[in-house]
Amino acid sequence: MRKITQAISAVCLLFALNSSAVALASSPSPLNPGTNVARLAEQSPIHWVSVAQIENSLAGRPPMAVGFDIDDTVLFSQSGLLARQKNLLARKRRLSEKSCVLGKK
């Protein structure tokens, strides 16, 4: 029984090793394909807005927090920045008061 199992294993191994692996030639895709004049011409036109138009559109609305999207990053308004800055400064002050943090004895 053991010889039959070894023989079958040997035949299977021969069939497995007999086939050759074929690698397909491929060219890597560019990381940043860029753009061209035709693609730029297909874009929607830029809609410019003046400060007066923004002011008129906000008339009668309550105050609100505003974020500005510049190059897919959000730049928060001054009030949000100040609130976060106060929190960080308070945390720094608490750490500096602890003598063990600064190595004082």
Automatic annotation (TrEMBL):
GO molecular function terms listed in the Swiss-Prot or TrEMBL record: acid phosphatase activity; metal ion binding; transferase activity
> EC?
3.1.3.2
The residue range of the signal peptide is 1-25
Keyword field: Hydrolase, Magnesium, Metal-binding, Signal, Transferase
Tell me where on the tree of life, at the top rank, the source sits. Answer: Bacteria
List the InterPro entries: HAD-like_sf, HAD_sf
- Name under which the protein is recorded: Acid phosphatase/phosphotransferase
What gene codes for this chain? aphA_2
